[in-house]
Amino acid sequence: MASRDKSAWDEPPDMPVGHFVSGDVYTDPDIYKDESEKIFAKAWRFACHDSELSEAFDYRVFEQDGQSLFAIRGEDGVVRSFLNVCSHRGAKLLDQPAGNAKLITCFYHRWTYDSHGHCAGIPRASGYSGGAVSKETMGLREVRTEVLHGLVFVTLDDSVPGLTPFVGKALDRFAEMLTGQPLEVFHYNRVVLDCNWKAWHETNMDLYHEFMHVVLRKTQVNAMPMKDRKLVVFENGHGGSGGALKAAYDGYKGFAGRGNDVPPLPGMGPTDFRFINLFPSTAIISRGHCRSY
Ligand code: FES
Fold it and tell me: What is the whole-number distance in angstroms between the Cα of residue 76 and the centre of ligand 1?
């Protein structure tokens, strides 16, 4: 096929609309704005792991769409989430990524809030007499929060159906590994990718991307024929590996001496791996340990 100049390159394919994906879905700011309003503002999204809030009043700050929120465990054991914004003049309440606070005190004018989001104290409250400002009316903006298999999810929309119908069967094959023994977060890493959010998920769903990784070319590509690898798409846009995929970890040069006797998570074979993309923004990848394939 001959090379194309700019106008030919910009031409849509000669096929009916709906039969191809426009590149605009990765680059058009208006499409992204639409997605923010119609998807991200409504979907259930992962916030943190239950174990990060193991004690009463433990909190964990997280971010969604540039908006700071926090989850906190109450003295009743319930995890609740709130916008990380003071009800007085909008100052950011919690500055640390995690901690424990029976009362949350705003640095600005010292208003305080409890783990239920109630406004617990307003200094010099008499100064507001005659107005609409009182402890009773100035609680935090609570965000719907549910926990499934130890994973804490939130949604900014008060009216969408609950987390369980949203996730459907997508986490069934992860339930045993997520709940079969106590888990804890031992490492946190933040990487900002300069790409559209869909590109990351599509790459994760595309098993041919293994060829791009030096290590995976050695440990995965030859461990299981491509024709035996199954992908499953669930309702609400979730998708991932159907059965357990396999890896031959001893194909990796640095395999020897890495401490290969750690048992895999419950429900996982030593050379299994599986993954799930939860629409729109969560990916879970689970691997057995590095015992010989
Ligand atoms: S902004 Fe928080 S107390 Fe005033």
Answer: 27
CATH number of 45-161: 2.102.10.10
CA–centroid distance, residue 168 to ligand 1 (Å)? 41
| Separation of first and last alpha carbons in the chain | 44
Residues 187-242: pLDDT tens digits? 989 888 899 999 988 888 888 888 888 888 888 888 888 888 889 999 999 999 97
Amino acid identity, residue 212? M
Q: What is the domain partition of the chain in residue ranges?
A: 45-161, 168-293
pTM flag (> 0.70): yes
| Ligand 1 center from residue 269 Cα (angstroms) | 52
Structural tokens at position 61: 């700050």
Of all protein residues, whose CA lies closest to atom 1 belonging to ligand 1? 89
Q: 263 and 240 in contact (C-beta within 8 Å)? A: no
